[in-house]
Specification:
about 120 residues; alpha/beta; 5 helices; 4 strands; about 30% strand
Amino acid sequence: MPLAGLMLGPVAAQTSVKIGILGNRSGVYSDQGGEGSVIAARMAVEDFKPAEHGLKVELDTISYCIGRQTLVASEQHPGMAAQREEVFVLMQRNAEESASYFCVPARRAMEVGTDIEI
């Protein structure tokens, strides 16, 4: 039996899997990641026949990709005075997140971020 058959064999209880598709419907990449990617994902799920493997697959479209940067005070990098760094980081953490500021629905957003040492 192939490995995929072992992993996706009959399951007593149906397992639910949710797949998010970042559907870029505007901009320069809309022809590569727009509505066509949603249709292709639906076709792939239909071809896979998840019910035969005891799976329930739900497709969800993600409409927003949000960037995030978290500032971290560091003693290794000279620059600002330590107290200023701490105050600066504290003020940045108290700032409202962009998703809530722009009223982006939480179930329609994907957040990508990084930590920056100052």
